[in-house]
Amino acid sequence: MQKETIHNICQTQIFEGIYNKYSKDLHDFLYYKYGSQINPDDKAQEAFIKLWDNCKSVTLAKAKSFLFTVANNLVLNDIKHQKVVLNYQKKSQKTHTNETPEFLFEESEFLESYKKALASLNEDQRVAFLLNKVEGKKHAEIAEQLGVTKKVVEYRIYSAFSKLKEVLENFNIK
Length: 174
What we know:
Oligomer: single chain
Largest sheet: none
Number of helices: 8
Distance between the termini: 71 Å
């Protein structure tokens, strides 16, 4: 029984003792190794949180090693993440397109026409069409969701296509 007490760091008093014993050393280790930019207080706290989360698998003898390893890895992961962010920021953002103003104007006109054409569909057609083409659902899934047969869904989508082709020129969706 006493052996379990020594090794079970999940108990509040034992964990508190570990915290009091190693928190300053862990902070100092991180501060001297990486400086104040990494915020050693936060990384030390995160290491203790990880220790608490893993208290059943970490013995008292391994607690110090666990804390210092976890804290060091947390800092290294942050540094790696900061490098990725900096590399992304260094890449020039695309500020231009190869699309002509005429194309952009035609695109916006078509989108307006498309919205009007969708609005002209009755609700059943519009819902079936959008579930199929926008959300990518299969006819059987739509039928189940709407509580109708698969044939009814197919008819609604087909009739929506027909109506959209009437209203829009060059309308072609697969």
